[in-house]
Structure prediction request, 197 residues.
Amino acid sequence: MPEVWELYQRHVGDFDRDRTRALFERSYLDDVAARLPEGAELLDVGCGMGEPIARFFIERGFRLTGVDAAPAMLALCRDRFPEATWTKADMRELDLGRRFDAIIAWDSFFHLSRDDQRPMFTIFAEHAAPGCLLLFTSGPKDCEAIGDWYGEKLFHASLAPEEYGELLAANGFEVIRHKAEDPECDYHTVWLARSIA
Prediction:
């Protein structure tokens, strides 16, 4: 199976056209924004083409760094939001040498295998400033799923919620908000945690 970023690279135009900007995520994004100081630094892991999530934070005056493995996605980001920082990287090898006030991984690292997801929490912790907020989506249970996406197979995986909780705690995060299959958020399973390390 190809790397997921390669599918996004091939279908950048389709995804850009079809990805809703309706901000069904707004409740969680507002929650993060309200907890951050003015001018806070955010890391968007798997930023895609920067809309709507990166745009949401950039327009509120936060300093954003976006990371994605698909060059075509980053090209759209740089064109639309030249004031932000856009970096090509595989999230599994991320080492920016900087710490952030918030880390967003919305609909991104759940494309990794379960074995690749577990070390991501150490990577998040290594990029987390004191009190850093971590917002991410997962599946509702321990599972794998293959979706049909523009005629290609798109992989998703999730750990059990108990394991996510253990990984967060082991890496110095406390859960402050969690909702499985939130009907007010397009049935996404969402986690919001805070670094207490």
User: Anything to note?
Assistant: The chain has one domain: 4-195. The CA atoms of residues 120 and 144 lie 17 Å apart. Residues 4-195 form a domain with the Rossmann fold fold (CATH 3.40.50.150).
